[in-house]
Automatic annotation (TrEMBL), chain A:
InterPro entries: ExoRNase_PH_dom1, ExoRNase_PH_dom2, RNase_PH
Taxonomic path: Eukaryota, Viridiplantae, Streptophyta, Embryophyta, Tracheophyta
Keywords associated with the record: Cytoplasm, Exosome
GO cellular component: cytoplasmic exosome (RNase complex); nuclear exosome (RNase complex); nucleolus
Designated name of the protein: Uncharacterized protein
UniProtKB/TrEMBL annotation, chain B:
Gene3D superfamilies noted in UniProt: GHMP Kinase, N-terminal domain (3.30.230.70)
Domain Exoribonuclease phosphorolytic intervals: 30-169, 199-263
Compartments, as annotated in UniProt: Cytoplasm; Nucleus, Nucleolus
Any one Gene Ontology cellular component term annotated for this protein: nucleolus
Name of the featured protein: Ribosomal RNA-processing protein 42
Amino acid sequence: MEFVNPEGLRLDGRRPMEMRQLRAQIGAVAKADGSAVFEMGNTKVIAAVYGPREVQNRSQQINDQALVRCEYSMANFSTGDRRRKPKGDRRSTEISLVIRQTMEECILTNLMPRSQIDIYVQVLQADGGTRSACINAATLALADAGIPMRDLVTSCSAGFLNSTPLLDLNYIEDSAGGPDVTVGILPKLDKVTLLQMDAKLPIDTFENVMQLAVEGCKAIANYIREVSDSFAREYQTAGVSTWLVVHKKGIRAHIQAPNPCLVIVGLSVVKSSLETCCIYRSCHLLSEFNSVNLLKS
Amino acid sequence: MVGLSLGEKHFIQGGIDQNLRSDGRKRDAYRPISIETGVIPQANGSARIRIGATEVIASVKAELGRPNALQPDKGKVAIFVDCSPVAEPMFEGRGGEELSTELSVALQRCLLGGKSGAGAGIDLSSLIVAEGKICWDLYIDGLVISSDGNLLDALGAAIKAALSNTGIPRVQVAAGASGDEQPEVDISDEEFLQFDTSGVPVIVTLTKVGRHYIVDATSEEESQMSSAVSVSISRKGHICGLSKRGSAGLHPSVISDMISVARHISEQLINKLDSEISAAEADEDEM
């Protein structure tokens, strides 16, 4: 099959080194601490981050760093022909593991000992490159949740078909049987954190293909930084201040709290409830949490 | 999971007693509803609906299949719901299965009618291509993206919107196949048939908290419920299905009272949904 026509265009009309259109949106899930939707062409994933919070299963608690967990799931309607798959099949377990390891690498887990961060990614539409899209979505969601990170990890894939290196494979190109190199990088530190390839490739060609994928990652990193910066600006100009409704035995009181803030009742930190609420959003480091008020219950 | 202190519980219950809920709504008021159609291009029809912080996606996929031998003149419809862990960490792994099944069964009961297929909101005989041989199988998938209570109503509305967004390809059946042979079919790429969704009911859930009942409960309010009654009502005001959740018993007179209130509310909801759906379709056409 011809994947690159004589004019040098791919099946979907792209040039070999062209990426699909990127689209990202921060804050898609209201109840999550951080969330984002990331689209690469027709591939669309949604990521949500819950935490840092108390470890749910005590036996998994780590005393000197945060526990990072990840679950990847695909919607029934995400693929071309409808399939109903059992949860936790081998493919999704593997991808969950890959995403977890990649994100764990960039989160400053040592700042949040004895806590847990959950990353959930849900594929809404799969058209190749779901792994990369999931990592990019997870990065944005972690940034939205205000979790301290070394850098914003980004990921992109590249392949080699019709003796041409191709950036950002779609489903048809991905299932053509050629090599598929998925790379994840820390763009500022200039380090590779994820590298996977199937099928075989001569070493010197591999270097080219990998270089192409790295370039793709860098382009995505620029885009992600743009999105998160414009989101942060919007957030600041909106001047979000939150009215907390505090209730004690029938007395209703309003307290205006600056954002970010953390309200502590008694000795326990209670989140997202009516009595007290703390806003983790836009806190970049735990030390930045500004405990405005100590309310004795 | 909602963890509430005693004070918060009293606050919610007190608000409902005074007809002023925590978010400023009255007992019979919905949160703002917004609908977007055609969100999943690979499906025959799809819609995303937001009710406050609750967000669900419904998609409709049509596949050619064989009708059931007992009902050769009817197509088949199946409804599945999936609760994504994105919505709630509790749904991780198999955690969402129980709720997913509960919602799927309730939706089936509310939208598909009995075993005979009679009284279904979707006209099953319109899904027949060649009687006894070929029919359309509709797979309706719901996905919960963000959960803040009232999931059943949201899913019902999303399915209604997705169905009105659905185009089923026109199928030509080659003549000449006789007996048990499967006839050859030609699926058109251009001509699509629209569904008549005017008969698809809406679901109104009334949640009983204390002595009163409320519509469109948030998850905090749902945690305080004693029982909830979901009524599916068509545009004509017919009750198409009913299910009661929660362990507390209800007096029969309360139930009939709830049904009549639900009927009254459903009129407003149907009008609201119809205008949102047509606005969403118009938006999609513009794109």
